[in-house]
Amino acid sequence: MILTDTEIKQYLGLDAVDDKLSAIAGSVESWVKAETGRKFEEADYTLYPDIYPGQDEIILPDCPVTAVSTFSAVIDRDSDGSETLEAYNAGDYYLNEDLGILSMLCGAWLPPGRHTVKIVCTAGYTAEQFTANTLDEIRILKYLLKTMLAREYALAKDDKRHVASISYGDESTTYRFALDSTQKSFLYKLQRKVF
Length: 195
Fold this sequence. Notes:
Layout lengths: L4 H8 L6 H18 L6 E5 L9 E3 L5 E13 L5 E5 L5 E4 L4 E4 L12 E7 L3 H6 L3 H22 L7 E4 L2 E4 L6 H10 L5
Helix pairs in contact: 2-4, 4-5
């Protein structure tokens, strides 16, 4: 989870995080990840994006991008699933690590078609970056999670739950989050944008 038990306890002024609170925290985090289209935590991705005619950039699924180990055109696929790849040279493209965008250089376009490019990359924030809490986007994310969690926990204590979905023991239900204007603004800032 993005928020630690210590952060949750400090923000809510509690001595411990019980199972119910932990379930609500997980639900809030899952909802934010689904709404933003991001995982936030560092993960490995293998992508075969569809490329449209004239397309010269690819928006990767998360950012920041910490490594791209493969960026290749798929030349051929055999019936056994093996591929013939032609790697792009470092001078053929530009990687904006912070935004997670691969852009072709010198007016080059990507080969159009379904799954004509293979990308293997690592993107998202490391555990150390979450612990340090020095990056603006991490602070925004944690603030959003904490404020949503505080509201949903207060509602759950009064039995007025509004969380996206929660399972606690044998009970399972689905609700909708009500965000204030600051939370909506922060959620928008965290979303992956398609330019």
